[in-house]
Amino acid sequence: MKTFAEGSALWFSLVHKESLNFIGFCCINLLEAKNRDARLGITIASEFWGKGYGTEATRFTVNHAFRYFGLQRISLDVTEGNARARAVYAKLGFKVEGRKRRGNWVDGHWEDIIYMGVLDDEWTEMYPKH
């Protein structure tokens, strides 16, 4: 990854395969060229939750980032109460790296923010054909 790309972002629009309706987006933010590090962001419209779209989109985006950008690490954060997303990220190989206590006010209460990450060699071990 070149230094000029640092601070850049790559966005993927997510569309339903049959209807071609917009269902969400994924983003890779290139944080540090020297460290080959990036952050993942993903949003899926609520009517499409629980149907595997988030898993598929996350897998595609992370794989693309490792394969074509030569990254060595991808991180993300997720609120403590978002158990579905945390399960998806764990299933895909992300590991909990830290926690920001009371980091987000949600529906009248505080929730911790969970920081997760995956390394390129961990990803390749789980998905050798990608």
TrEMBL record:
PROSITE patterns: GNAT. InterPro entries: Acyl_CoA_acyltransferase, GNAT_dom. Residues 1-117 form the N-acetyltransferase domain. One of its GO terms (molecular function) is acyltransferase activity, transferring groups other than amino-acyl groups. Pfam families: Acetyltransf_3 (PF13302). This is Acyl-CoA N-acyltransferase. It comes from Suillus subaureus.
